[in-house]
Amino acid sequence: MERLSMSILALDKEEVLKAVEEDLKAHRDPLDMIEEARRGLEKVGEDFEKGNFFLMELIRAAQIFKDAASLINPKIKEKYKESTTKGRVLIGTVSGDVHDLGKGIVASLLECAGFEVVDLGVDVPEQVFVEKIREHNPQVVGLSGLLTTSIPVMGNTVEAIEKAGLRDKVKVIAGGGVVGDIQPARIGVDHTSSNANEGLRVIEDWVKKRD
Amino acid sequence: MKETMTRYERLDTAWNLQEADRVPVAPINCYIIPYLAGLTIREMFFEPEKLIKATVECLDICGDEVDPNITTLDHTSLLGKSGWDQATLDWRISEHFPPKGNIPSFYEKTIIDDYNDVLERGFATILFSKKICKDVFRRSIDDFLYYEFEYPYIYAKAWRKFVEEYEVPLLMGGRACHPLDLLQYYRGINQLTEDIFERPEKVKAISEMLIEYEANRAMKQAMIMGAGEVPGADIIFFVNGGPPGMPPRIFNEFFWPYAKKAVDVFVNRGFRVRCHWDNDLTPHLETIKEITRGLPKGKILLDLEKTDMKKAKEVLGDRVCILGNVPSTLLVYGTPEEVEKYCKKLIENCAEGGGFVLSTECETPWDSKRENVRAIIDAAIKYGQY
User: CB distance A59–B102 less than 8 Å?
Assistant: First the structure.
């Protein structure tokens, strides 16, 4: 690992920003830089799943990555005129649930990993998911919820997506505090998880397979 | 299977790390009771007689103690509240439970913009923040005076009568919140994480202020509820374990010192402390071991949510009583047989030698199946005999 990714792994914001500034001054390819930073974040994610890092450290690493990316991304646009994304994920907390945190962490990790994220917010009615799938044409839909009562609502949301004839166009993942305990088939989704990084990994696999 | 102890004696024995006649059992039933009894959420919070009547109708799922839902005092007073619920929950008081209505949910938005403002001008900057749900604060001065100075006594009197009539102790008399919990609601976890890494001294300064406020508020509540006279009213319910996923360095530096400080204050002033600490605290058990340092035995209960209970028993078993942790999903989506199996395992892992209370993880979800909650109590009777 190089300096930028190592500094992200060390959660050393100052060192990360210093490395970015120096690399930019040295005219390093910004795409190379963002990929290196991403490798650092991926390593944090891997270590988190192994239990070597804690959730708060994962959140911190994503924050630092975003700070670095805010300096690097304008240079990518300048050099390559357009930015590329790995894919598009539509994400929202289902109807009746106003919890934002878990969704926010996943959305943030997805953005850092190079996905375009359409965040519908919280307490999102089933029909809004349907309309927004039509509008944004995502590869993946993420349903978030903290409350046990959100679990059947996730099922209802999938049903609404199915009725609208959109189910086979998207993969659906459900996540939240207790959602990982629920079998995916029970609510008609493709995967359930209570672990943000595992969710990211699953989505990356799906999108890779589609390509 | 004859029971030879009263409920209070049974719990008291467990707190003192001894074996009672059987394992005490105490699901934390907050919203499920009014829901099952057909109360509205408004009635639950404003009409103690109705809540108590509902509790009587649900004694079959209450076990050895009942939750007097002390949050009522916080929700309905204006000043001098713990802050936790009122200032941070999406408190749209509703006539209905979900799906037609709602129960309080976390805002997860930044309420405190500036730590300095709070440090300089005090709690009013939080309590009167315009970002807090308007429904909570749209009260007349008469309402404020009533809910701050009269209602707590009416509420306490009703629960005292319940305890005398039904001989079921309360699970708490007052409630305090750990500063990091308050801060995760006032700042949001994302922002609090940044604060801890970038403004650690500010976080510590405000934590000092918050813990004083919380401790005093909780002890006042407990006194009104009858601490020393009403069984269980001397217990301070100390929530909530801090933000999820703290690494040990953060836990030891930002959570633990204030937790220990509050526990010491409560115990030294004659109260008992029930630490209701959510999340998985297994990585921090060695630190938590210090909780009893300098304190007499039998004063602390650790109520754990996702922590490995077997490990907790190993590390803490000779120091504090532990309580928990039948999963919420099992209560909502499982069967009585599955609940029984889980409880049996918990009892096998934790009950030996006393110092264990069988209970739910965090709180019994309002939409749990009644028979599943009952299965917890039946399991304590079936497998928990000493």
Answer: no
